[in-house]
């Protein structure tokens, strides 16, 4: 049996229709972790969908429950020889809300639909399609070789879209159960639809809530304009004090200050490419003096997510009593998150905006993480994927978004190697979420080759 045979077996699941049928069944489960009525579906996904697969593949299984997580955790382990390297894998089976009213005609978030070589459905990209690729590749290697040739632990959680509550404590309290030599996982997007990618960590995510409350009730702008402070204007100036007119973060403490040389060198080989249907890039937007890749993967971005003031749909022509906004900071390694809110406060005070309050955020925050670009397992995975692809994949120091990756880098001290099977325009967290079949094809081949190589190291 050969490496090529393992790859062929993985691809056969696609050509035969078995992979599509498996994914369709998984998409049909409305595992929405932020809606309590769907919490039984979270457990059903573990019990009825995943547990039988791992049992068939010879994995021992343990389930955990942690409050306040809406769903459980499944750890499936196949230990072939304690002397062999151990790989920890990760995926999540929960999804965001379906919002069916926003999808294109003929599409349903919980029905897998194929159009023009693309599969539509909630979870196709985030994350059911991605962990389905990895499961199919594992099964193909076992079918061809009879064994993996390494130890594998697969952690599935059902609350990632809820902020992964309980996951950090679970891993910290069960370090031996999750111990491994490296993490290999799939989530997030590759850098472009046609650009196979490895990323080694994730930017941190921190929400900043601002609020101005001036008084009770609305007051006629003709009678009171010029006499009463307008919270909407105050909030607009607060945002302008923090973010420049071309999107530059104006608070130095919210940025890493500099980009490490090895990160800069890696990003010099990265080009941001768009696909049909993606928005056109604005090259003038963002931190000046940086490439677009550096802005997304090596620097901080402070963005306005939502603003509320008055009611534009039903105007009162009156001075509003309050205004609020939610800003989001995405930051790489090198930012002291404990210093973020004090720095924002100082910036607002320096601008005379003392009435603008920083309200405690209830959103989950994710720390930043980044594995060593020169780690031996990173080089091994890169070489394996390059052999399968006939080209070297793009290597990103970290994802532009956020993941609970510090649980693996900091708690378990693992190098983290993420091989995403999606792309930026996939529609995750919005309408018409989808996964191109071409990415599935490439992902099955890459992962089968990688798992084969892990079991046949010299």
Q: How big a fraction of the residues is strand?
A: 15-25%
The second-level CATH architecture of the largest domain is 3-Layer(aba) Sandwich
Strand order of the largest sheet: 1-2-6-3-7-18
Estimate the helix proportion, in percent: 25-40%
Largest sheet: 6 strands, mixed
Low-confidence stretches: none
Could you tell me the number of beta strands?
Answer: 19
Question: What gyration radius follows from the Cα positions, in whole Å?
Answer: 24 Å
- First and last CA, distance: 17 Å
Overall body shape: globular
Mean pLDDT: 96
What does this 3D model show about the protein?
The protein is of the alpha+beta class and 458 residues long. It has two domains: 3-202 and 368-455, Zn peptidases (Aminopeptidase); 204-263 and 285-359, Alpha-Beta Plaits (2-Layer Sandwich), CATH 3.30.70. The protein contains 14 helices and 19 strands. It has helices spanning 3-15, 18-27, 39-56, 128-145, 167-173, 175-178, 221-224, 231-242, 261-267, 292-297, 340-350, 376-389, 406-411, 437-455; strands at 60-64, 73-78, 86-92, 113-115, 118-120, 151-157, 182-185, 197-199, 201-202, 204-213, 219-220, 301-309, 318-319, 322-331, 357-359, 369-370, 394-396, 416-418, 434-436. The strands form six sheets. It has a six-stranded mixed beta sheet, with helices on one face. Strand 4 (113-115) and strand 5 form a beta hairpin. The radius of gyration is 24 Å and the shape is globular.
Element layout with pairings:
Blueprint: H1 3-15, H2 18-27, H3 39-56, E1 60-64, E2 73-78, E3 86-92, E4 113-115, E5 118-120, H4 128-145, E6 151-157, H5 167-173, H6 175-178, E7 182-185, E8 197-199, E9 201-202, E10 204-213, E11 219-220, H7 221-224, H8 231-242, H9 261-267, H10 292-297, E12 301-309, E13 318-319, E14 322-331, H11 340-350, E15 357-359, E16 369-370, H12 376-389, E17 394-396, H13 406-411, E18 416-418, E19 434-436, H14 437-455
Parallel strand pairs: 3-6, 3-7, 7-18, 8-17
Antiparallel strand pairs: 1-2, 2-6, 4-5, 5-19, 9-16, 10-14, 10-15, 11-13, 12-14
Helix pairs in contact: 1-4, 1-14, 2-4, 4-14, 12-14
């Amino acid at each position: 049996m050969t490496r090529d045979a393992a790859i062929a077996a993985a691809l056969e699941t696609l050509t035969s229709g078995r992979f599509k049928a498996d994914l369709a069944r998984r998409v049909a489960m409305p595992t929405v972790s932020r809606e309590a009525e769907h919490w039984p579906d979270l457990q059903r996904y573990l019990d009825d969908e995943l547990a039988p697969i791992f049992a068939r593949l010879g994995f021992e299984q343990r389930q955990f429950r942690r409050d306040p997580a809406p769903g459980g955790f499944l750890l499936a382990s196949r230990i072939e020889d304690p002397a062999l390297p151990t790989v920890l894998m990760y995926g999540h089976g929960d999804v965001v809300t379906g919002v069916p009213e926003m999808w294109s005609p003929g599409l349903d978030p919980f029905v897998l639909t194929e159009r023009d070589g693309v599969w539509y459905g909630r979870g196709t990209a985030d994350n059911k399609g991605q962990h389905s690729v990895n499961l199919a590749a594992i099964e193909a290697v076992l079918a061809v070789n009879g064994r993996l040739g390494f130890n594998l632990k697969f952690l599935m959680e059902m609350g990632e879209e809820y902020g992964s509550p309980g996951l950090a404590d679970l891993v910290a309290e069960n370090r031996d159960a999750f111990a491994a030599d490296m993490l290999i996982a799939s989530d997030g997007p590759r850098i472009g639809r046609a650009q196979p990618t490895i990323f080694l960590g994730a930017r941190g995510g921190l929400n900043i809530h601002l609020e101005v409350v001036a008084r009770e009730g609305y007051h006629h702008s003709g009678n009171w304009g010029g006499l009463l402070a307008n919270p909407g204007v105050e909030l607009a100036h607060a945002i302008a004090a923090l973010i420049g007119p071309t999107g530059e973060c104006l608070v130095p403490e919210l940025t890493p200050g500099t980009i490490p040389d090895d990160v800069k060198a890696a990003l010099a080989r990265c080009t941001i490419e768009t696909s049909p249907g993606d928005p056109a890039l604005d090259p003038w937007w963002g931190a000046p003096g940086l490439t677009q890749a550096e802005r997304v993967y090596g620097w901080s971005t402070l963005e306005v997510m939502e603003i509320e003031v008055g009611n534009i749909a039903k105007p009162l022509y009156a001075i509003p009593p309050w205004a609020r906004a939610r800003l989001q900071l995405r930051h790489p390694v090198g930012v002291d998150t404990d210093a973020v809110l004090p720095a924002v406060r100082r910036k607002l005070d320096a601008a005379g905006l003392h009435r603008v309050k920083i309200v405690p955020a209830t959103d989950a925050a994710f720390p930043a993480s980044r594995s060593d670009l020169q780690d031996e397992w990173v080089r091994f995975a890169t070489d394996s994927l390059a052999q399968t692809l006939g080209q070297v994949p793009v290597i990103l120091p970290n994802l532009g978004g956020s993941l609970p990756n510090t649980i693996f880098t900091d708690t378990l001290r693992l190098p983290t190697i993420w091989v995403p099977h999606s792309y930026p325009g996939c529609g995750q967290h919005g309408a018409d979420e989808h996964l191109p079949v071409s990415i599935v094809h490439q992902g099955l081949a890459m992962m089968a080759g990688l798992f084969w190589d892990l079991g046949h190291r010299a």
